[in-house]
Amino acid sequence: MSAKYLLIKEKIKKFKKKIKIDGDKSISIRSLLLASQAVGVSKAKNLLKSEDVFSAINCLRTLGIKIILKNNTCFIEGRGINGFRFRKNITLDAGNSGTVGRLILPLIIKSPYKIKIKGDKSLSRRDFSRVTQPLNNIGINFFPTKKKNLPLYLKGSNFLRPIKYIERLGSAQCKTCIMLACLNTPGEIEIFAKKSRNHTELMYKSLNIPISIKVGKKFDLIKVSSPKKINSFKINIPGDISSSAFFIVLTILTNDSYLILSHINLNSSRLGIIKILNKMGANIKLKNIKNYNGERCGDIHVKSTKNLKSINCPTSLNSSAIDEFLIIFLVAAKANGVSFFKNLSELNQKESPRLKLGSKILNMMGVKTKLTKNSIKIYGNPNLSLKKKYELKNYYKDHRVMALCTIAALTLGGEWKVYNPDSIKTSFPSFLKILKKNLGAKIH
Ligand code: S3P
Description:
Layout: E1 5-8, E2 16-20, H1 25-37, E3 39-45, H2 51-62, E4 66-70, E5 73-79, E6 90-93, H3 98-104, E7 115-118, H4 121-124, H5 129-138, E8 141-143, E9 152-155, E10 164-167, H6 172-181, E11 188-194, H7 199-206, E12 211-215, E13 219-225, E14 234-236, H8 241-252, E15 258-265, H9 272-279, E16 284-292, E17 295-303, H10 325-333, E18 337-341, H11 354-364, E19 368-371, E20 376-380, E21 386-392, H12 399-412, E22 413-419, H13 431-438
Parallel strand pairs: 2-15, 3-14, 6-7, 10-11, 21-22
Antiparallel strand pairs: 1-22, 3-5, 4-5, 7-9, 8-9, 11-13, 12-13, 15-17, 16-17, 18-20, 19-20
Helix pairs in contact: 1-2, 1-3, 3-6, 5-6, 8-10, 8-12, 10-11
The chain binds shikimate-3-phosphate (S3P).
């Protein structure tokens, strides 16, 4: 049986280590979805084995795709574009994953039967109209018609039209959803998208799916159309920089420590965390950089940092650090001066309302914040040290909130009870094992 809560009463001791991090979540989910549309068996090595990824696997299996996990390789037997076995009364369960929930939709838009899509409590409070509206313009109907959240029913169509779509949120999920819809749509789809992670674009290029990209400063113009066929492929999935972020900050905030995180995805659309922390005075270096399947990968070297500076965070970095802000806030709490993060209303649309919850957790730790709907000011204190008892209980079981509090406990002290520790399994199943076995953290 899994533990009800974690008890952390001791800070972590100094360490000098090299670690590996679980596979990238965005790339793992995209690999599965695209492999399901390819012809033949694709192989994904080092696929992330987290609950979100299993939600993707389960949805694809429900749609008739054979998937086998053997040692560290995942075999996906693709049946070609729109090759799913549609049946009556199918329900697809996306679990906790916004990415699975939003990216499975464009692959089933030709289903002759209504398909139900559902998710867990956290996913069911998140906005799906951001993808159902543009899919509606392509010719897909969702029921109940005006409902914005899961569960929803999708009714497929054979009369689909290409659209011109403007993506203003900087959401890679919205952009990718419409990019995937092109596989089932005649003609060319045009997407004018605010910058966000570009893993789908890179995969399209490496799989020879017709794509052209005009790169702009804030927006990219992307044109996609369906290939006749996608060939099966092999992919070696690098470590996830969003999971790495917790260990980067753990090292920065622990005296006399040094950490190497090897073979991590270093796609520039994901490097906001490195840029922001280095601006705050951290010492993070990227080494041994190589190219794998069009993605940049390499090692991250990080040292403890004594004199952290506050930051007025440029909004141009928001999308490239969107999943890392919670842990960046912890660094801001230890920095000298007031940090300011703005235009971040999207953070409240995540697995939990992270801007609000992040502020609340900092306040619980005695850190002053000023919160608005889309910004936060954090009044940092380089001498911040925790002495009291703290509890993390009602947090929508958001995996990144759980990891934030674990790192806070191990670096700032106090006696912490972190409830529902299994929440971390949605994105980073090895999190506690690396902390305890590799780095010697005392967690009960
Ligand atoms: C993701 C995109 C981001 C991110 C999420 C994964 C993806 O969401 O927060 O964890 O794989 O495309 P948004 O597209 O909603 O910003």
